[in-house]
Design a protein that fits this description.
alpha/beta, 11 helices, about 30% helix
Length: about 325
């Protein structure tokens, strides 16, 4: 079996759902995780390790890795450095066939049910979003970020304090495509849309639905006259910050309701139409449209407050995302 280590660099106070994230890591015993942080974490699962570094030490480490002083003034900028992890943490990755960068605003399902050895044997890059990208651990893939093809070059990204979204579509995904990397982009994930205040998967038709983490699996429960259950590799919060209202026993038993407002205890063992009616987050298409328009106005306000340089970066990044989306449509 191919060995995988997923890495997350995190500075600042951990989110209140950190205990749930760690338990979801534990329930993936055939994958290892490493957290690079200046925080102290007690009672770690056996497949999770911590590499303690100050933020300044990490910045210096990245500078040494790429060969020039990098701009890394705030933890938010770390997104632009995810593609460097394979080169920067090679000592910690010596025994692994693949390494990945990931986030913690998510709950893992059974990852190896979706990332099989057949996929790993045939692809060098798995995923297309910054919240989970898995690279083959070799010299070519560990240095892929240096190749041309992204909206911005790595030197531009690493020497400027602004965020360039270099870790995903307008950056590493375009670089991978233009350098003919064998990339598996069909990973089934519950990537909830940032255009809605509720949990709604990008591209999914609206209907009565709710999400649970049950027995270590991420499940979308939906339907009208019958219950439909779909399983996903993980659920990504997409910037939403649900309150953690879960008691430890429910975390231990891995039976939790997942919603944009809160993570809550789930006592039931089976699914029913009555539970779907009770936990359904979808109201109507009209309500969704109102919600979408409200969030769009908020986003426009945020963009208008950016500096001219930041607006130019934002426009170029979105143009890069459009290019990648066109590539995906043409590949289908």
């Amino acid at each position: 079996m191919n060995r995988i280590k997923l890495i997350v660099c995190y500075y600042g106070k951990f989110p209140q759902w950190m205990n749930i994230w760690l338990k979801s890591c534990e329930l993936n015993p055939d994958i290892d995780f490493m957290i690079v942080t200046d925080n102290k974490i007690d009672n770690l699962p056996s497949n999770v390790t911590v590499l303690n570094m100050t933020f300044e030490e990490l910045r210096n480490h990245f500078s040494k890795t790429v060969g020039f002083p990098v701009s890394l003034e705030s933890p938010y900028k770390l997104c632009d450095y995810k593609s460097v992890y394979g080169k920067a943490f090679q000592k910690q990755l010596e025994e692994y066939d693949f390494w990945g960068c990931c986030d913690i605003d998510l709950v893992w399902g059974h990852l190896r049910d979706f990332i099989t050895d057949d996929i790993l044997n045939n692809y060098d890059l798995i995923g297309k979003y910054g919240h989970l990208m898995i690279y083959r651990n070799n010299e070519v893939m560990n240095n892929l970020f240096m190749k041309q093809g992204g909206t911005f070059s790595y030197k531009t990204v690493f020497t400027n304090s602004d965020n360039y979204s270099f870790d995903e579509m307008s950056g590493m995904d375009l670089i991978a495509h233009r350098n003919h990397v064998k990339q598996y982009r069909a990973l089934k994930i519950a990537n909830v849309s940032p255009s809605y205040s509720r949990f709604k998967i990008e591209g999914q038709t609206s209907k009565k639905e709710f999400f649970v983490w049950k027995d270590g699996k991420i499940l979308r429960v939906s339907g009208k006259n019958d219950i439909i259950i779909e399983e996903y590799a993980y659920l990504h919060f997409s910037g939403k910050k649900p309150r953690n209202r879960v008691d430890e026993e429910y975390i231990e038993n891995a039976n939790i309701y997942l919603s944009a407002e809160s993570l809550e205890n789930r006592e039931k063992s089976e699914f029913s139409l009555e539970e779907l009616e009770e936990k359904n987050a979808f109201i109507s298409e009209k309500s969704d449209k109102t919600d979408r328009n409200k969030i769009r106005k908020i986003k426009i306000g945020i963009v208008l407050k950016k500096t001219l340089k930041q607006k130019i970066i934002w426009l170029k990044v979105h143009k890069g995302v459009s290019k990648f989306n066109k590539i995906e449509r043409e590949d289908k």
